[in-house]
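Sequence only, no structure available. Ideas?
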Amino acid sequence: MSSYGRKFRDGWVPESPDLEGKYRVYMVAPYLPRMRFFLQRKVFRNEQGRVYGNNEFLGFIRVARFRVEKGKSLSDPDLDVIRIVYDDPANPFFVRPLVDEVRQVGPDEYLGQGMFTVLGKPFWAFWFLVRR
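Reply:
I predicted one. Tokens follow.
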């Protein structure tokens, strides 16, 4: 298991995560510096007791709508995660199979793994860090 895998497992899911607002997104990989592509952010909004959002690039390009829910990890059904689900008709077909799974690892800091589902089977794709 990678160091990110251990850190992800050691993280937690808060009882009531406060995700309202904009969070910086960093792609992370072992032995490489944290990278922010095109100033990416995840923007979370609470609407009628549910959390929705989108990804934002360069401060004004909004893409990939999502909804947020608690659930079990696709890669480890014994692990609780916060899921960022992109299965929305407004998204392009190639984005819809993506589910980001995040666990809190520090104050206002979440470690996530991007998972794609292909033919009903989940595949790990990347690690990322989300910070308020």
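The helical segments are 3-10.
Hope that gets you unstuck.
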